[in-house]
Sulfotransferase (Labrus bergylta), 310 residues
Amino acid sequence: MSQKEEELTYEVAIEKATASLTRFPLIPVRGIPLMSYIAQNWDSIWAFRPDPSDLLIATYPKAGTTWTQEIVDLLFHNGDTEACKRAPTPVRSPFLEIFSPPPIPSGLELLEKMDPPRIIKTHLPFQLVPPGFWENKCKAIYVARNAKDNMVSYFHFDGMNKTQPEPGPWEGYIHKFMRGELSWGSWYDHVKGYWVERERRNILYIFYEDMKENPRREVERIMRYLDLSLSDEVVSRIVEFTSFKNMKENPMANYSCIPKSVFDQSVSPFMRKGEVGDWTNHFTAEQSKMFDDDYEKQMKGANIPFRTQI
């Protein structure tokens, strides 16, 4: 089957299944709340055996995942933008743990059809990543975004994503975020888990804020980590093609392939703002103080250099 045919098959499958989609409840897996379809298929996810050449891109949700997937795909294709329009992001770079009602293919099913090296996306915290990744010494890129902006983006995403629990009002969402009661659990534990393991597991740990501040520098960091050497001209093309504006307009990256009954982009675009510091438009002074006090307790001793402004 050609890439184009796979793309059409993926979109048709989603269209067929949307009638049965609902906001799935969260079920804990080893203490981490995951959507019920993921939890019910956990054994097969945990047993996944990657090829040593596979690359894992891990993030807490809404921390720059799609951006990084696009950068990596372009690096692997020497900046060929047409090659990277061959299919939507979730087909080019499958979501490891995602399971939905049939006939939507799971991440595992998409991966089975692909030859290594594959770009694999996950939101799983470090302790839930299938051990095969570390046993096979796969490379992994972890992208971390400051907690306040990450929470704002996740709040809007949970509003438009009709498969995740209803976010409720902003005032309550802050507390759910602080308590780790959202899909994929605690942001605090997530960013700390990969940070602690980054050297032992050869994880490239990058920050969303650094990517916004100097995208070329971070693209070059990723390139070197992947043992690639591309010309300055190609790197410049990748930086331009993966700008927020260009990706927002790119139907292969902006998730417009997902029907409105699943991702209602009239509620909030999948690619909403892509800014650092948008949290100031959402937090009251009182909420910010409460959040900061809790943040200091939860991140005590972590020493991860997050920035809420650039």
User: Anything to note?
Assistant: The radius of gyration is 18 Å. The beta strands are 26-29, 32-35, 55-59, 119-122, 139-144, 203-207. Residues 3-17 form the longest helix (15 residues).
